[in-house]
């Protein structure tokens, strides 16, 4: 079931497009892109979430990421 968001699809898509363009302009390979995005997530959690909530949010984020990964072979 899709997750409801307080943010519009257009706002989410705009930010996703901008972040993707930065990585593409740098010609960042997949592993580097994932490292940078992972570090960004870690920094956001550590700087914006109370210490008591960090591990629960990280687990929730990891579960959502795993659930969103496709099993198809379109590589």
Automatic annotation (TrEMBL):
<dbReference type="InterPro" id="IPR009857">
    <property type="entry name" value="UPF0352"/>
</dbReference>
<protein>
    <recommendedName>
        <fullName>UPF0352 protein SAMN05216522_11380</fullName>
    </recommendedName>
</protein>
<comment type="similarity">
    <text>Belongs to the UPF0352 family.</text>
</comment>
<dbReference type="InterPro" id="IPR023202">
    <property type="entry name" value="YejL_sf"/>
</dbReference>
<dbReference type="Pfam" id="PF07208">
    <property type="entry name" value="DUF1414"/>
</dbReference>
């Amino acid at each position: 079931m899709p997750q409801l968001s307080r943010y519009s699809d257009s706002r989410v898509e705009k930010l996703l497009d901008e972040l993707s363009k930065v990585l593409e302009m740098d010609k960042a390979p997949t592993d580097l892109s994932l490292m940078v995005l992972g570090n960004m997530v870690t920094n956001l959690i550590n700087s914006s979430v109370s210490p008591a909530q960090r591990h629960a949010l990280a687990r929730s984020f990891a579960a959502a990421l795993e659930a969103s990964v496709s099993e198809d072979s379109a590589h």
